[in-house]
Amino acid sequence: MQTARRTGVDREPAWRSAALITGGFVALLWVLEIVDTASGHALDAYGVQPRTEDGLVGIALAPVLHFGFDHLVSNTVPVVVLGFLTLATGIARGLLATAIIWVVGGLGVWLVAQPSSNHAGASVLIFGWIVYLVVRGFLNRNSIEIFVGVGVFLVYSSVLLGVLPGTPGVSWQGHLFGAIGGFLAARLLTTRRRVAANDTYRPSY
What we know:
Elements: H1 14-38, H2 57-61, H3 69-88, H4 91-112, H5 123-140, H6 143-156, H7 172-188, H8 192-197
């Protein structure tokens, strides 16, 4: 008779960890905006400022900074929903996908956006998460991920028009390169090829 041995520490469900991480990230956004407002918006200077040495700092900091509470409020619900969905099917993969979106989005804005502009906000992550969630299921051929991706597309498809220029004061470059980062993350982190590569013949006994 086979017996199972407990490890002594039960593994926390991924959805619970995803909720805690996403909630902590949103709390960080709000704390930073409170500090920014109290300091006379001193933190706004740390956004992405294209093709300047100081602006490189914004690649790391811009997604957690916002230009006022209205800006933050408009991003909060999408961050909660999309951030949670990105992490819920795998914390490590979701965090790595977010890192790819973060870097590609910020670097793309720094290289391409208009000089003397300043870009900040979590929308670079939001657009990246949308594309990542829509694309990854089809690449992985995972029915649950496809279902999530279709749902995200139905809810947020109109938002993707934000990758196009036209609205004054909106960083369409951040939206565009965030979306590109999301697609790259889905391609780089696909699990289907790894499974196929490991699917070797193993006889049963």
